[in-house]
Amino acid sequence: MKLRLNKTVATVASGALLLMAVPAIGLASTSGAAVKAKPTYTIGYEGPLSGGNQQLGLNMVFAVQLAINQANATGKLPFKLQLKTYDDQGDPTIAPTQAQAAVHNRNLVALVGPAFSGATAAAEPYYKAAHIATVSPSATRVTLATSGWNNFFRVVADDGVQGPADANYMVKKLGKNSVYVVNDGTAYGSGVASAFATQATSDGATVTTATVPGTSQCQNGTASATQYSAAATQAMASGAKALFYGGYYCDLGLFLGALQSAGYTGAIMSDDGSLSPALIQSTTPASAANGVYLTCACASSTNKTFNSKYQALAHFSAANATYAPESYDATNAIINAMKSLKKITRVGIVNALHRLTWKGMTKVIKFQKNGNIAGSAIYVNQVKNGKIVQLGLE
Amino acid sequence: MGGFGHYLLSHLDTMRREFWFLFVGGVANGFLYGMVAVGYTLVYGVLRLINFAHSEIFMSGGFAGYFVMKAMIGPTVPSGFATVYLIVIGIVVGGVVGAAIATLVERVAYRPLRRRHAPALAYLISAIGASYFLFNLAGKEFGRYSISVPQPYVNHTVFTIFGAPVQLYYLVILIAGVIMFVGLDRIVAKTKLGRGIRAVAQDAETASLMGVNIDRTIAMTFIVGGALGGAAGFLFGLGTGVVFTMGFTPALKAFTAAVLGGIGNLRGAMIGGLLLGVVESLSVVFVQAAYIDVVAFGILVAVLLIRPTGILGERLGRAA
């Protein structure tokens, strides 16, 4: 059966449309914004939504969507919000194209992200030129804050905070006076490891450093996984009571297996690159991961309301969704900045974010002049019986 | 000079303390390299071809072993006879799948080229293509992250030599490696198939005139090499987990070992593998782990400068 547009129906329908439109136009011209159709603004998200790091991007994007849905649902805002995602795969070579696409979306007023440091460094010049505020939930490279980008903000502590905080925890709290510090040869891993080593030394610990490059087993490198038995022997030979690993979970997993085989029993700590349930999955045997401390500038959410709403939207648990709480805070920081403005412009949001002080879910969101979060904390977690458990602040 | 003397002495002291520990790990790695190297050498011997897809045969053996272990191992870690049984099953399945993939590669990527008398470069590109196809397919099908293989035993120290503990995992590799090497050596030296392989390696045309079925011999060569490569993949995966790129570096090392021992030379591949594994492992006494590969390839260059045909020389035909 075919639906035909009756002439009468068409007339009535168009008439009704006209009638609906008239009051809005009429009122707008007379008494201001009371019943006026709300304008819709777009908040962007840039991060990995495909490729090997897709899960991290999904963790974030559902939190951004949740914050936007909640803001729209209150009905109190003088505008409506919508989300537009830009998939950079976490790749610095793709990020500029995505940033340009975001910049050319005239309706886009601010952006959550970019997610990765390398991608941020590549994309930020475009956002800066367009005066678009970017609030990253996860980019932790130190130099991002010192590149002169007035529009750059992040709601996590940078790598320069994490390394020293980890060292203090290891030396002062756990009382380890000799530490074997290993890095995986990546910019991220060696950055955290050297910051750790410097602080641990000044805390009075004996520090031995070593580079064990990432393996082809883990995509980040070219070295052979067979190197870890030798590396573990070296760690044992150093006689250190504790080990710090700057790098990512996959290679740490290989190293943990070798350390257990070598008979190493000291404390082991690593950074947020290793903070993933996949660490346990890629450790042979999985029990070798037990007891490992994993630190992160990111919090795992203990907020029940957030967790249940997130689960309903994402269809996976917020408990292991790294950077979901930060993404939620980053989005709400933007929304709060927008609320404080009479007229919403890209540059207005940048300025409003610089003035913002607001208690978010993970921490108080107040930015330093360079865009770094003020007075932030590092969370420490530990693997217990094959599960990652948050112990609290360092 | 005093400074250097001190450097040397302190490192020699570390060497003395750690030697056996590093040696055991190095021998185990060496056996794995050797098992894979044999596959390169056999194929090179009969075809004068570097089978670059061999790394993916290794990888497929690893995944086959993983799936078998996952299917057969329950929540409790097996022990005793069950352990031995599972390891043998894993090696056999890894070997069979490795042999199957090797045969497939030979049929699809090499045999058509041989029929058309393609130039050597075409084989090389075909090999690289097969390699990329296979590992990307594995990445797509099995995920692009490292997966830990369920353990058929609790890894523990079985005995010590000169104070260095020998782990069960290493012992498994050692035993499996010795059986495979001796078995293969006997096959090539004594059986009709072995004579065929050596004959084709020496002079394919004359061999065919003497009644050797060249196609069948080449196919068998791929099967034997693939079986060892697949079994090595299982053993490697047991210790470090499986991932679609797992073949790349070990196979490159194995290729190095094959050249080191003399490519085309069966015993050379085994000796080259062991030598590479042990030297790599011991080198961490003097340099950081980051330089292991530098040492490995430095040795290769040094050996080739002195003996361009490798330690035992080239020919498969002459060797066994």
Query: How does the overall form of chain A come out from the CA principal axes?
Result: elongated
CATH names the topology of chain B as ABC transporter involved in vitamin B12 uptake, BtuC
Q: What's the number of structural domains of chain B?
A: 1
Q: What structural class results from the helix and strand content of chain A? A: alpha/beta
| Count of alpha and pi helical runs of chain B | 12
Seen as an oligomer or otherwise, the chain set is heterodimer
User: How many distinct domains of chain A?
Assistant: 2
Task: State the CATH topology of the largest domain in chain A.
Answer: Rossmann fold
From the spread of the alpha carbons, the general shape of chain B counts as globular
CATH architecture identity of the largest domain in chain A: 3-Layer(aba) Sandwich
- Spatially, the strands of the biggest sheet of chain A line up as 7-6-8-9-10-13-14
Q: Tell me the fraction of residues in β-strands of chain A, as a range.
A: 15-25%
Poorly predicted residue ranges of chain A:
1-5, 17-34
Task: Indicate the proportion of strand residues of chain B.
Answer: under 5%
Mean pLDDT over all positions of chain A: 87
End-to-end Cα distance of chain A, whole Å, is: 69 Å
User: How would a textbook summarize the main sheet of chain A?
Assistant: 7 strands, mixed
**Helix content percent band of chain A:** 40-55%
Account of the 3D structure:
The complex is a heterodimer of chains A (394) and B (320). Chain A has 394 residues and is an alpha/beta fold. Helices cover 42% and strands 18% of the residues of chain A. Chain A has twelve helices and 14 strands. By secondary structure, chain B is mainly alpha-helical. Chain B is globular and about 60 Å long. Chain B starts with a helix and ends with a helix. The model of chain B has no long low-confidence stretch (mean pLDDT 89).
